[in-house]
Amino acid sequence: MTIQPRPADKATPYWWEAAPVGGVPGQPLAPRVDVAIVGAGYAGLSAALTLVRAGRSVAVFDAMNPGEGASSRNGGITSGSIRPGLAALTRKFGEKTAFEIESEGKRAREFLYDFLKTEEISCDFQLTGAFRAALGYQQYDEMARAAEGLAKRLGIDAYAVPHAEQRGYIGTDFYRGGVVRMDIGGLHPAKFHAELLRVALAAGVMVHCHTPVTAITRDAAGFDVTSSAGKTTAQQVLVCTNGYTDAAAPYLRRRLVPVRSRIIVTEELSPDLMAKLMPRRMMMGENRQLGFYYRPTPDGKRILLGGRDSSWVGDPAAPTLRLRAGLAELFPELSDVRLAHSWFGNVAMNRDMLPRLFERDGVVYASGFCGSGVVWATWVGSRAAHRLLGDTVEGRTAFDFRPPAAVPFYNGTPWFMPAFIKFYGLQDRFALWRAQR
């Protein structure tokens, strides 16, 4: 009889062991505020902190505990990546805008790193660098040229690693080389959110958890924001719900598709094995449509691996087993390893796969981080705050353009995602088959 691999020991995020999410002390709902923000994740709290320090009164509403969504569930990689490549961006937006989008990633990462240092945020941040792997030699050549171009255009320390030198970066023979970027690192995402929440509360931000917003209506005096705690009037409203957008923001909901991203974490591994598999403790990724992202945990004792989850209801075992199989394919030494945690969270995708800062009927939206929210949510949230303050210099961003296009026949339920994931999986298998390996 074949023994099926068992699921993980826990279905909760590994990050919650050291930084459990929870509520905040209750505060009375103010009848009037300058700004109401929907969503108490990275984007909402970053915006709130900027606004309060500028003298505005701010109330932040969250349907769950602050940070219980993607902010405490993600992989903690400070990639700030953009899904479309430079060539695709150039074809769609022109050379000038494409370069602005690409260069904004550098600015956003530098902003985050400076924020962590200035605010004395304790979140296990390490600027380790990131290795992105190539499936075949042709892909490696393309990636190597792209890394060279990135270094020339933006001065980023980026370089190619040929297959012969690969094991100095990652302990597997599955890939055919890759590229390194030294401006990317890793942090503990739940600790980062907890620290951001601490700083925001100390600055005077009013945070209302387990207080879903049910309606936002505009009138001559501003906006009426109706929540489970009652009604408050706000001069301005900012929506930062991203992958957890609900019926309170119907315009945004038709434009963002919540996609599950699942992560597994191994049991503790021996120091020798960790040194063999991840000798430089870098963040890791690969060039597939459904590519894995992975990294050592901040203490260097476990491996975390994540990828897309084809399910959209319940918590089935199949996505965990798929990630487990992927882990074993990369690292055969881990075929029988015990999984300590497996969990999922929603990332928000849109049709052109770009973050957004836009306004509709007076409401400002900061959303669409497409799986790179550690950098983009913090950055775009802060840009949104400066926009609300009327600061056209600090509020400037390359992502301040038209709203994402609506998804046809979509009303918030991603019923079509299993089919899309299957299609992308077939593309990946075909790409691997035809790769020059």
Provide the number of structural domains. 1
| The CATH H-level homologous superfamily | FAD/NAD(P)-binding domain
In the CATH hierarchy, what is the class? Alpha Beta
Tell me the series of helices and strands, N- to C-terminal.
EHEHHEHEEHEEEEHEHEEEHEEEHH
Distance between the termini: 36 Å
Name given to the CATH architecture:
3-Layer(bba) Sandwich
What is the count of DSSP helices, taking H or I runs of 4+ residues?
10
How many strands in all? 16
User: Poorly predicted ranges (pLDDT <50, ≥5 residues)?
Assistant: none
Q: How large is the share of residues in beta strands?
A: 15-25%
Can you summarize the main beta sheet? Answer: 8 strands, mixed
Write down the overall geometry: globular
Question: The CATH topology is what?
Answer: FAD/NAD(P)-binding domain
**Share in helix:** 25-40%
Backbone CA Rg: 21 Å
Keywords: Oxidoreductase
InterPro entries: FAD-dep_OxRdtase, FAD/NAD-bd_sf
GO molecular function: oxidoreductase activity
GO cellular component, one term: cytoplasm
What would you note in describing this structure?
- The protein contains ten helices and 16 strands.
- By secondary structure, the protein is α/β, with parallel strands linked by helices.
- The chain has one domain: FAD/NAD(P)-binding domain.
- The strands form two sheets. Strands 1, 2, 6, 7, 8, 9, 15 and 16 form an eight-stranded mixed β-sheet that branches. The protein has an eight-stranded mixed β-sheet with strand order 4-5-3-11-12-13-10-14, with helices on both faces.
- The longest helix is centred in the N-terminal third of the chain and has 24 residues, at 95-118.
- The protein is globular, with a radius of gyration of 21 Å.
- It starts with 31 loop residues before the first strand and ends with a helix.
- The mean pLDDT is 93.
